[in-house]
Amino acid sequence: MTTSTPANPIEFYDIATRPPAEKTCCSPNPWKARFALNFKAMPFTTNWVQMPDITKVRKGLNVPPVRQFADGTDFYTLPIIHDPNTGALVGDSFDIAVYLQKTYPDAGAGDLFPAQALGDWVLAKEHSILVPLTEARPGGWPDYAQFNVNVDAAFTLHVGLTVQGFPFDPASEEASKAEFVRRAGVKRFEDFTLEGEARQKVKDSFKEMLGGLAVLFKKDPSGPFLLGQRASYADMMVGAWLRMFHGTLEASEFDEITSWHDGVFRQLHDALDAYAKA
Q1: Any alpha helices (H) in 104-190, and if so which ranges?
Q2: Which of 78, 162, 173, 201 could be stapled to 168 by a disulfide with Cβ–Cβ 3.0 to 4.6 Å?
Q3: CA atoms of 183 and 185, how far apart (whole Å)
């Protein structure tokens, strides 16, 4: 274990979007890793991977998948980090945060996992989700691991709001859309279109779902983080999903959504700009 900032930059693998990718990146799990890298003041370089190439790249690095679809097939996704200072390859956003905290505990802004109560907010009921979620592998922080699962489930249930505005890279757009269609089991990409009354229904559900989460963010009125002025990896879990919605929705709709619940999610989104370097 080392406590200092590494001498050599970490290699970070993210999903390529419309150029310039560093301005349009919006995949939530890579964003969790990026926030953690910046919070810990890690020097890093980004390898942008086209969506159809993710499986090939992950297999080429010999990083096994950590998630499976309901039928048992492997789900190959990003992020991945390679730390040349230790030789470590880590291929899950939560595991990356755990690795950074355990390997570089005193680097950057300090502790990614300060003690806090995160168990007060859970989903109201079970839902069917097509894309497999990260399992709760605690790595020493079980409350954070479960909170990560709950956050992912809440946002994934409403991710349909973001699909039609996803900033695909034109170089791989058709193949990427075909993969979206395959995963969701629909006939064509246009089936993802969500407008009018149907869109409003999803937004109403989203607002209700986030109500309990907003209560957590209001416990410390000094805000904008769950622990007031102190950021933690739990804030980054939520902030990463907000980055996806910011990158895929019309500005007016993002403003509407982040105005809910006294604007706590807009405050969080803006405050995390401090750790948003691509």
Answers
A1: 142-156, 160-163, 173-184
A2: 173
A3: 6
183 CB neighbour count, 10 Å cutoff: 13
Angstrom distance (rounded) from CA 114 to CA 237: 14
More confident residue, 38 or 3: 38
Residue 171 belongs to some domain of the structure: yes
CATH code, domain carrying 38 = 3.40.30.10
194-203 pLDDT per residue, tens: 999 999 999 9
Model's pTM, two decimal places? 0.94
Q: What does the alpha-carbon distance between residue 227 and residue 68 come to, in Å, rounded to a whole number?
A: 34
The answer to whether 237 touches 147, Cβ cutoff 8 Å, is yes
CA distance 27 to 50: 12
Which has the closest alpha carbon to 31: 180, 130, 74, 39? Answer: 39
Per-residue pLDDT band for 171 (boundaries 50, 70, 90) equals: very high
In a domain, 2, yes or no: no
* Confidence (pLDDT) at 215: 93
Please report whether residue 65 resides in a domain. yes
Summarised one tens digit per residue, pLDDT across range 91-114 is: 999 999 999 999 999 999 999 999
Q: Do 192 and 160 touch, CB atoms closer than 8 A?
A: yes
pLDDT digits (tens, 9 = 90+) for 259-271: 999 999 999 999 9
The SS3 call for residue 67 is: strand
Q: Which two tokens stand for residue 214?
A: 């907003």
**Does 120 score more than 80 pLDDT?**
no
Structural domains of the chain, count: 1
Does any domain span residue 4? no
- Which residues are CB-contacts of 158 (< 8 A; sequence separation ≥ 6)? 202, 203, 205, 206, 209
